[in-house]
Amino acid sequence: MTAAVSTPARPRRWDVIALWGGIAFSLAFTALIAWLGPRLDTIQLVPDQGAAWYYWKLPEPTFLTRFSVWGLYLLHQVTAWGLIFYGQTRVRKYSTGLQPVNIVALATTAAFIVLHLIQTHIWYDGLAQDVSIFSSQGSVIVLLVWVLLMENNRRGMFFGKKLPLGQEVVRWARTYHGYFFAWAAIYTFWFHPMVSTPGHLIGFIYMFLLLLQGSLMYTRVHVNRWWTVTLELMVLVHGTLVAIAQGAGLWPMFFFGFGGIFVITQMHGLGLKLWARLLIVAGYAAAVIAVYAGRPATELNEILRIPVIDYLAVLLLAGLIGAGLWIARRLKGGRRSAEVENAA
Q1: Between 20 and 30 A from 218 (CA), which of 4, 51, 284, 323?
Q2: Burial (0-12, 13-18, 19+ Cβ within 10 Å), 91
Q3: Which residues, 6 or more positions from 279, have their beta carbon under 8 angstroms from its beta carbon?
Q4: Which residues lie across from 158 on neighbouring strands?
Q5: Could you state, in chain order, the average pLDDT of each consecutive group of 10 residues for the chain (344 residues)?
Q6: pLDDT recorded at residue 82
């Protein structure tokens, strides 16, 4: 008889456990926001005044309503940036476990989520009281464009083909993306009070997941391609559902616009077989035909608006980063020249 050979147990993936725990927390807390939402229905708000108006803000803010949200936002923001800096200078290596910085980040993220709910039910207002609605929308748009830019080397930009972007630009975008992403997510998170409209609820789920992603920095799950593309596609779900709720008939622009970016760019980083990619393209085309078959042909331009804007924005962002790096090199070169002259 031969002795049975025992197969060594796989080590626990604490990063994956934390991911699924964070997702469960996000869904449960969103349900809590929905349950507590009717408590805020008695607050009297100013009638809607158009696209540039944010409806969910107090007609007469006070020092405390402003101080509560701005104070907590700034504390949250500085904490997140400090943790990112710590990770970049002390951790730097990816692992399947959780580093102390991840545990602290997860705990502080959960704490600020709870604090925001308390702040909403006591003082109501978010940052929207003092800043433009377009600043919140714009921050998330730039975040998504930034992802397209920094993933250019891995998955390409157009059907697997890379844009000829400077490697220094892409490297800088990858190295420092965490600081901007933390700002975009945390700023948008505190922009809105935790009210329970369908648009806010799906938006908070999205923000919770982005904050979770940031808390899992330097773990393998943080760079898992299926998880990261899921985060990218959440904007499709959010944009489409909000457009349907508003009833303006613009939902196809969001659904097919962000869906088009998935077909053109995002799915090519998933390692899918050719037949799977062709099937996705065929499904996308069939859905476009089904939705637009009874509409004027001129409305087809809706599906191009978001992709065109996003790809042009990639070029603009790359240009801005490149210009900043060029200016930094010039300033550094000038300082070196001055030091040489002084030494002589």
Answers
A1: 323
A2: middle
A3: none
A4: 161
A5: 59 92 97 96 86 88 96 98 95 91 97 98 95 92 96 94 93 96 97 94 96 97 96 94 83 94 96 96 95 85 94 96 92 65 58
A6: 97
The size of the chain, in residues, is: 344
Question: 């799915």: which residue's tokens?
Answer: 267
Instruction: State the Cα–Cα distance between residues 99 and 85, nearest whole angstrom.
Output: 14
pTM of the model: 0.91
**pLDDT at residue 250, as a whole number:** 85
Provide the sign of the torsion angle of the four alpha carbons 172, 270, 103, 97, taken in this order.
negative
User: Is residue 172 a contact partner of residue 321, using CB atoms and an 8 Å limit?
Assistant: yes
In 3-state terms, what secondary structure has residue 161?
Answer: strand
Query: Strand pairing partners for 161?
Result: 158
Answer whether 206's CB lies under 8 Å from 199's CB: no
For residue 127, the 8-state DSSP code is G
The pLDDT of residue 337 is: 56
Q: How far apart are alpha carbons 86 and 89 in whole angstroms? A: 5
DSSP state of 300: G
Angle between helices 274-292 and 251-264 (to 10 degrees): 160
Tokens describing residue 344: 């002589």
The secondary structure of 191-232 as a DSSP string is HS-----HHHHHHHHHHHHHHHHHHTTTBGGGG-HHHHHHHH
Q: Return the half-sphere exposure (C-beta side, CA atoms, 13 A cut-off) of residue 183.
A: 10
